[in-house]
Amino acid sequence: MLSAMLAMAARIDAILPQTQCGKCGYSGCMPYAEAIASGEADINKCPPGGEEGIRELAALLGVEFKPFDEGVVLQPPSVAFIDENLCIGCTLCLQACPVDAISGASKQMHTIIAPLCTGCELCIAPCPVDCISMLPLPPTARSEQSARDKKHAAAKATRERYQFRLERIERDKRDKAEKLAKKEQAATQSAAAPNTDAQSLIQAALERAKAQAAAVKPQNIERLTPAQQAQIAEIEARRAKAHELTRPGVTPPEE
Ligand code: SF4
Ligand code: SF4
Ligand code: SF4
Predict the structure, then answer these.
(1) Is the pLDDT score of 142 beyond 80?
(2) Could you list the residue range(s) of the whole structural domain that residue 9 is in?
(3) 45 in a domain, yes or no?
(4) Segments in 79-147 forming alpha helices (H)
(5) CATH code for position 102
(6) What's the 105 CA to ligand 3 centre distance in angstroms?
(7) Would 43 be classed as within a structural domain?
């Protein structure tokens, strides 16, 4: 049941213009297609699709054509234009464009790539200096645009650009997360490094202390008896041997 609904949504989406403008009241063409497929939305809410789009949807779904919904505002096809003298290079329009139809970089002038612009108007509201306006397309371009197969080809190309953008945003997010993880790992390793240094310093100090202790000779033994001196000599010999065996690289003899 769900898969049949999704299959129908995909067929409806293939008819929709893919501008992702949200003028249907949904967040993009696919959400609107899913709403139509599930019976939640009517077929007459997409202004960029025109009446021709409603007819195609009606034919696909086997329902009667109906005029645009009362709330729909119809506008002539248009393209965005940036007044480059006013642009401050904030990149907000670039981030809002769903089909990457704006070129520019931070603190640099931005420009609309007119052949890619679908006229969705999503870049207008974010511009802090109101330097983007919509220009109507010339009539020749308008009549060309109304040709059905040309329109479908444009929708297909727009869908691909939209998908590419979504994938790029996901890839950027992944790259950022990986970089952050690497940074955190490097920070953890460098925090651990001083401990290793401290351990080797402690080890070296212990070695030095052992060596010094080994070098100290018993004092004032002249007044001891020969037996006591022999006992001390034996202890010293044992200590020297023990020190020799604890030196790094010396393997203790097997018992
Ligand atoms: S193009 Fe049509 S279906 Fe797509 S978001 Fe705009 S109004 Fe909705
Ligand atoms: S440039 Fe503006 S109007 Fe054109 S597609 Fe991008 S967001 Fe939409
Ligand atoms: S939002 Fe306006 S000011 Fe900012 S980069 Fe785009 S056109 Fe320029």
Answers:
(1) no
(2) 2-61
(3) yes
(4) 92-96, 139-145
(5) 3.30.70.20
(6) 10
(7) yes
| pTM (global) more than 0.85 | no
Averaged pLDDT of the chain: 86
Q: From ligand 1's centre to the CA of 236, what distance in Å?
A: 95
pLDDT in tens, 105-121: 998 999 999 999 999 99
List Cα–Cα distances, 206 to 52, 164, 249, in angstroms: 89, 63, 16
Which residues, including other chains, have CB under 8 Å from residue 91's CB and lie 6 or more apart? Answer: 104, 105, 106, 110
Q: Helix 29-37 to helix 2-15 angle, to the nearest 10 degrees?
A: 130
Residue whose CA is at the smallest distance from ligand 1 atom 3: 29
Does the residue 91 lie in any domain?
yes
By residue count, the chain amounts to 255
CA of 155 to the centre of ligand 2 (A): 14
- Can you tell me the distance from the alpha carbon of 69 to that of 146, in angstroms, rounded to the nearest whole number? 21
At 163, phi and psi to the nearest 5? -60, -40
Work out the average pLDDT over 224-238: 75
Closest by CA position to 111, among listed 98, 97, 125: 97
Contact (CB, 8 A) for 120 and 110: no
Q: Is 93 in the pocket of ligand 3 (CB under 6 A)?
A: yes
In a domain, 231, yes or no: no
> Given this model, what pLDDT does residue 213 score?
62
